[in-house]
Write a structure and sequence with these properties.
With 390 residues, the protein is of the alpha/beta class. The chain contains 15 helices and 13 strands. Helix 9 links the parallel strand 8 and strand 9.
Length: 390
């Protein structure tokens, strides 16, 4: 099925992604879709060539009216302007298919010719649907009323874009439920793609966990990621923590962190892999939509300590009777005491995890499975559209 799409040069595809400013999970999903459609064009609110250009290759990129250097630097703070940016995007060819990659309002891109539109949804916008208070809580009090109004207006706009999607595909059962609750639409589930490059033999941890020196966190340092919980816990227990990543919360959290906590910022993939292989475990303290990072770490044979809610429940296996058949542990209260207690327990069983079992579990989420599944969804959508036209 997948080969039918790859070799069909007559299909013109427009791929709409919320923004290309950083290169994280959502962008990796788009890269896998671009592999299927090497001639696709890209539409986005913001595009940072220095960060994303090498991954985009020769694809044409059309960015919005908001894509100015001074606005791009503040892209997360100018959310009230997103609808203006989306409305400024106009399709520049006669496409056969639109694929939107959504956790912002990009699925609202204008489609006057009613081209079949498949939306791969990472989540309905968190700051509008279900997690608004988490974002408001970290803002200065004087700003909160204005931010709250901005979120409400953006949510109302987002509601108007739902009907333009012919088919929703969610990145997890967790997100499919949100699509049903908030958009009142059904969604198929296809897990995001984990790069097959991670499964090379030289990327598998060889040393005992007890011989490694630190715990690891990496990813965006934003409010819902709950990196502040890690800082508070490791300030209290004194163990070594390495934090890789950038985000709006970094400066504040780095300022309150004790010397046993090291913030490294954004790093190249090769260095990240080296830090993964030297880690006792990945700490994953937020309620995630899905979360590719735990699987990427498992691919290296390193276990995960995760908050037992959201997407982690679909990726982390905890077998209390046989640790060798586990890929990590859950803590079930999002507070310092619960996390410290789980880390203390992990220290007593850390060498019982089986790196090969961890890797084999992660391999089930490989990008080849994603490409096959998304290809089938696309073919079904195009087939249904042809039938309806006839």
């Amino acid at each position: 099925m997948m080969n039918e799409i790859i070799t069909n040069k007559n299909i013109k595809v427009a791929i709409a992604h919320y923004w290309f400013v950083t290169w994280r999970g959502g962008e990796k999903v788009v890269k896998a879709i671009l592999d299927l459609f090497p001639n696709a064009d890209i539409y986005t609110l913001f595009y940072e060539p220095a960060t994303c250009g090498e991954h985009i290759g020769n694809h044409k990129v059309y960015s919005s009216i908001l894509d100015k250097p001074f606005l791009r630097k503040k892209y997360q703070k100018i959310f009230p302007l997103y609808p203006i940016g989306v409305k400024s995007l106009k399709l520049n060819d006669d496409y056969d298919l639109i694929i939107s990659s959504e956790s912002g309002p990009i699925k609202g891109i204008a489609n006057p010719n009613h081209i079949p539109h498949l939306c791969y949804i990472h989540t309905p916008m968190r700051y509008c649907w279900g997690f608004t208070q988490d974002y408001l809580d970290v803002l200065p009090g004087r700003i909160r009323p204005f931010a709250k109004l901005g979120f409400e207006n953006l949510r109302r706009y987002d509601e108007t874009t739902v009907k333009g999607v012919d088919k929703f595909v969610a990145n997890s059962n967790n997100v499919a439920k949100r699509v049903k609750d908030f958009y009142h639409r059904d969604a198929s589930v296809i897990y995001p793609p984990i790069s097959l490059n991670l499964f090379r033999d030289d990327n598998l941890a060889q040393s005992k966990s007890s011989d490694r020196e630190y715990y690891l966190s990496f990813g965006a340092i934003t409010p819902y990621k709950a990196i502040g919980l890690l800082v508070d816990a490791f300030n209290a227990n004194g163990k070594k923590l390495v934090v890789i990543g950038e985000g709006s919360e970094r400066k504040r959290l780095e300022a309150k962190a004790n010397s046993n906590i090291q913030f490294l910022g954004a790093l190249p993939d090769k260095q990240i892999q080296e830090y993964i292989l030297g880690a006792k475990a990945l700490l994953f303290p937020g309620e995630e939509d899905f979360g590719m990072i735990p699987l990427e770490v498992m691919a290296h044979g390193v276990p995960v300590i995760a908050y037992g809610k959201g997407g982690a429940l679909e990726t982390v296996l905890e077998n209390e009777s046989d640790v060798s058949k586990s890929t990590g542990l859950f803590f079930h209260q999002q507070n310092v005491d619960a996390l410290i207690e789980k880390i203390q327990y992990f220290d007593t069983i850390q060498n019982e995890f089986d790196p090969v079992f961890l890797r084999n579990h992660a391999r089930k989420f490989g990008e080849d499975h994603f490409k096959d599944s998304i290809s089938n969804e696309i073919l079904n959508l195009l087939s249904d559209n042809r039938k309806n036209r006839n």
